[in-house]
Design a protein that fits this description.
globular; binds 5-O-phosphono-beta-D-ribofuranosylamine; alpha/beta
């Protein structure tokens, strides 16, 4: 099992990325900004949302990226409605020749239809140090548990929610007077650094998945270090 990108392709053309988002889209924006700044050698070929009014779609339009709203409602009530919906997503991703899928605040369970099609080619970002605090309200759970540090995690997507081989993590301190909102904001600023970096590592063909572990080739060269992400 490997998340390594074929290196032949690396030299020929930019990595084609598809982003799935349901809301604000600040992580999408971080990816766009990293590409514009030359820190990420990739191209977003489509931004897709299950929410018509997602700010992520506005951001896509603002940057002249293909934006797609795929309404889940017509699929509801059908047998295997989630899988059928994901098949429709897959059609969009294939049409835009997406090589790597990024979940960026995508608030819908992804089924095996997408996961198998993009095995080790689909990433998610989560606002905690997984495996601690999976699921919703991770920052609130971190505060309630009394941890001194939380953070964020970029991982490959598998069928279990917020599981899957971990690519990068950043550690963020929890301050005494934090609210879920202030902690979320502090973590978010690190998410915006971490996600583009994980994508760039993939684009460079430097991620190798062995079971649950991701080996980063030449990890000493990472452009920024919080606590060193071991190779
Ligand atoms: C982020 O905190 C991300 O970790 C989580 O959902 C939030 C999405 O924020 N999965 P945004 O839509 O990227 O601004």
């Amino acid at each position: 099992m490997s998340g390594e990108r074929p290196t032949g392709k690396l030299r020929q053309e930019k990595l084609r990325v598809g982003v799935l988002a349901s809301g604000r889209g600040s992580n999408l924006q971080a990816i766009i900004d990293a590409i514009d700044a030359g820190r990420l050698d990739a191209r977003i070929t489509v931004v897709l949302s299950n929410k018509k009014d997602a700010q992520a779609l506005d951001r896509a339009r603002h940057h002249n990226l293909a934006d797609v709203f795929l309404d889940p409602k017509p699929y509801a009530g059908q047998p295997d409605s989630r899988e059928v919906y994901d098949r429709a997503i897959l059609d969009v991703l294939r049409k835009h020749e997406v090589e790597l899928v990024l979940l960026a605040g995508y608030m819908k369970i992804v089924t095996s239809v997408l996961i198998n099609a993009y095995e080790n080619r689909m990433m998610n970002i989560h606002p905690s140090l997984l495996p601690a605090f999976p699921g919703l309200e991770a920052q609130k759970k971190a505060l309630e548990s009394g941890v001194r540090f939380s953070g964020c995690t970029v991982h490959f997507v598998t069928e279990e929610v917020d599981e899957g081989p971990i690519i990068l993590q950043a550690v963020v301190p929890v301050e005494h007077d934090d609210t879920p909102e202030t902690l979320a904001e502090r973590i978010l600023s690190w998410e915006h650094k971490l996600y583009p970096q994980a994508v760039e590592l993939y684009a460079q063909g430097r991620l190798n998945v062995e079971g649950r572990r991701v080996h980063i080739m030449d990890a000493t060269n990472l452009p920024f270090v919080v606590l060193r992400n071991p190779s």
